[in-house]
């Protein structure tokens, strides 16, 4: 009944406004009883107490990915509509969600919840009562972003000559803006703070200046992050034998042996030979970075859509990260076109290793059958990334004809102008005939 009475009052309100605007209806004056009835409904729908906010505007700071709730509690709202706005955009109107972003929803009537906050969610959120005064409740949201840091150059490897000035740089981002500090890594600890800011300048560098310098970024949001940069100072001096260093000659072979190697031993070594006719010099670099990856996988895989890639890396320090890139080769009888690289980042197990030889394997899934792929592997330890490995090719099985495990001899005569005859002998167990032919054609075309 109350709802019906309110609807009647609403229509009477409209009717009286029309009558007041014209003063007469069909040439007759206004009926006093009609006015009195309208006033009764007006008193019913407009109580003496106006709608007001019980919540107060606040500033909220949330870490990216968190969930926040912006309160908007009212009293005596009546038939007024409550809006949530952000700038000129309407987020909600009464209980209706206007935004299509599923992260937004209303809780406990008109409290606005935002899940998985993003940097672009920062700003003012306005809860507004849609009456004649359009009263607002404003909440300000700031999104905190943990720091990230990267080295410049990205390799993190800097080389300088003895006596020169070197500047190491790193770039950090986050909200608030991170503060940056620099320390030098020692064998068992870190040095006191060397500098603050995005760059570290070292003047008149000496041999002892070589080493690992760490850039640390911190803005108070979660844990600080850091990145290491390696400085190698090039210098020349004659090496004298020590308890860790010895030089031996066997005929025309001359060897330098360094025992119990340390980070201070890293650098470029030159072997100089002199006689009456002149001088010759050759260089070799000694580094703590991992050696290039060596592949041990079979050329032909045993599955149509997966392949077990196996490799080994030489590294005295433990490995911190492995990066695998692979791509498919588009091939036919006349050309081969590489596809897009796919990148995988792996964290090696940190178990205790008695050897510097690290043997690893990874199963690549989601491959296409009867296809040729290329892969490269790169490894990183505390001294930086190694050189990218040579490109390694492998093959997936075909879904069609498969050959057995018997001894197979196959000869293919190329029809191309230069004419190449290729003979393959051996046990080609579980190898796709079409893949073998494709490889033979590739060798005959591109050799």
UniProtKB/TrEMBL annotation:
GO cellular component: axon; neuronal cell body; plasma membrane
Ig-like domain ranges (all copies): 51-138, 147-228
Highest rank taxon of the organism: Eukaryota
GO molecular function: axon guidance receptor activity
Stretches of the chain forming a coiled coil according to its record: none
Keywords annotated in UniProt: Immunoglobulin domain, Repeat, Signal
Keyword Signal on entry: yes
GO biological process, one term: synapse organization
N-terminal signal peptide: 1-27
A Pfam match: Ig_3
Name under which the protein is recorded: CLUMA_CG018874, isoform A
Organism: Clunio marinus
């Amino acid at each position: 009944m109350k709802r019906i009475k309110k609807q009647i009052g609403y229509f009477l309100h409209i009717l009286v406004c029309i009558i007041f605007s014209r003063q007469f209806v069909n040439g007759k004056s206004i009926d006093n009883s009609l006015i009195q009835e309208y006033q009764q409904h007006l008193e019913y729908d407009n109580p003496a107490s106006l709608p007001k906010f019980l919540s107060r505007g606040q500033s909220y700071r949330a870490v990216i990915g968190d969930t926040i709730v912006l309160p908007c509690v009212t009293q005596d709202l009546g038939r007024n509509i409550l809006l949530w706005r952000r700038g000129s955009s309407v987020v909600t109107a009464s209980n209706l969600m206007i935004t299509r972003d599923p992260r937004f929803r209303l809780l406990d009537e008109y409290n606005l919840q935002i899940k998985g906050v993003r940097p672009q969610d920062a700003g003012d959120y306005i809860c507004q009562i849609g009456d004649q005064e359009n009263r607002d409740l404003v909440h300000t949201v700031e999104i905190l972003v943990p720091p990230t840091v990267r080295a410049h150059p990205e390799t993190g490897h800097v080389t300088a000559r003895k006596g020169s000035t070197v500047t190491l740089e790193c770039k950090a981002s986050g909200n608030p803006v991170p503060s940056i500090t620099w320390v030098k890594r020692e064998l068992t600890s870190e040095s006191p703070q060397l500098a603050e800011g995005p760059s570290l300048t070292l003047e008149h560098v000496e041999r002892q200046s070589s080493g690992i310098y760490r850039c640390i970024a911190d803005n108070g949001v979660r844990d600080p992050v850091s990145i290491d940069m390696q400085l190698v100072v090039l210098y020349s001096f004659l090496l004298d034998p020590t308890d860790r260093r010895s030089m031996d000659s066997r005929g025309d072979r001359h060897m330098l042996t360094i025992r119990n190697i340390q980070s201070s031993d890293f650098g470029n070594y030159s072997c100089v030979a002199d006689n009456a006719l002149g001088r010759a010099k050759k260089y070799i670099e000694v580094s703590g970075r991992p050696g290039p990856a060596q592949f041990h996988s079979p050329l032909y895989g045993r599955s149509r859509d997966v392949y077990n890639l196996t490799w080994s890396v030489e590294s005295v320090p433990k490995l911190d990260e492995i990066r695998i890139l692979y791509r498919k080769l588009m091939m036919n009888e006349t050309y081969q076109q590489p596809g897009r690289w796919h990148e995988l980042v792996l964290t090696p197990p940190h178990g205790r290793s008695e050897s510097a030889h690290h043997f690893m394997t990874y199963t690549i899934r989601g491959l296409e059958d009867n296809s040729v792929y290329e892969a490269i592997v790169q490894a990183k330890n505390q001294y930086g990334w190694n050189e990218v490995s040579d490109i390694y090719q492998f093959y997936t099985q075909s879904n069609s004809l498969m050959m057995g495990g018997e001894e197979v001899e196959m000869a293919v005569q190329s029809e191309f102008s230069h004419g190449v005859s290729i003979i393959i002998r051996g046990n080609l167990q579980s190898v796709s005939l079409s893949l073998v032919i494709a490889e033979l054609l590739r060798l005959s075309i591109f050799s």
